[in-house]
Amino acid sequence: MIQDTITYLNTRLESLGYFNEILGLAERIEKATLVYPAIYSNGEYNQINLDSAGSLSYWRKNGDLSYSEQPSTTKIGQEYIATLPLRFVGFMFKEDSLDDPYFAYNVAQTVIGTLTNNSVALKQSLKALRVNVSATKTSLDGRLLALEEYEKIDFEPRYNWAYLSIDFKVEIVTNQNCFDTLCNTIPTDFHCGVVRILNEAGELITEVDCGDSYTVTETCDGATVHNSDDTYDVTVASGGYLELEDITFNVYVNGVFNQTFDTPSMVDNTININN
Fold it and tell me: Across the 275 residues of the chain, what is the mean pLDDT of every consecutive 10-residue run?
């Protein structure tokens, strides 16, 4: 459950292009009285090196996984809710944004918007009824972040870096069977690319990113407009309109051409000829 959730969130982060290195779940470990975030790999914990990537991110558990239940909203019985608290930590070199005081704020808002926008692929992977990802707290204070991530390490925030931590709450609503088997989660590849939407003729309508949604607009056939003796007919596309042409009258008096004039269609006209 946790692995699939972080894999999904990291896939969404990759689309932003903010971070050179996007890491998975880290832990604060203590070694020789020093406390620092580290990634477990190849049988050991490796300290996260900020200077090696230029910009990176990682995740930490921000509390225990909790469970609760509620009456089902769709059928008789109970629904079960797993609540997973996660903390996202990001370090970014500002590069050309040194003079932008809102740089870290804008990055944080974009990250929140991206990670909380759509959870369809995650819901399908977890075999859940519903999944909700929400942000509960944001901190852009580099000194505070250093205190929360490091102990007894001389970590001095630098003005040309942006520091951000965002607390997220992931709520996974499922049924008893899913919890009994821990949802039978199998590591899922969320890199499904772009989905092509075609019409009945096989023509491309649009392309939708994996995990996003597309609303089909209902359409109807065009209409045919014709006169009473079928000497005139035209097809108007659905949603379109038809502007009727003016009617031209050629007036003859005693077989001699007198004049011509146009009048709008569908309008009653009276012609008086005095001879």
Answer: 89 90 92 90 87 83 88 72 94 75 91 87 83 93 88 80 92 71 45 63 70 60 76 76 78 80 74 68
Angle made by CA atoms 82, 175, 67, in degrees to the nearest 5: 25
**pTM for the model:** 0.62
Q: Which amino acid is at 38?
A: A
The SS3 assignment for 210 reads: coil
- Position 189 scores a pLDDT of 46
Question: Within this chain, do residues 66 and 152 fall inside the same structural domain, yes or no?
Answer: yes
Check residue 61 and report its DSSP letter: E
Distance CA 71, CA 60 (A): 31
CA dihedral 174, 68, 6, 121 (to 10 degrees): 20
CA–CA separation, 50 and 252 (whole Å): 94
Full domain range(s) for residue 165: 2-191
Q: What angle do CA 212, 218, 220 make, to 5 degrees?
A: 155
User: Alpha-carbon distance 231 to 260, whole Å?
Assistant: 22
Confirm whether 125 is domain-assigned.
Answer: yes
**Amino acid present at 153:** I
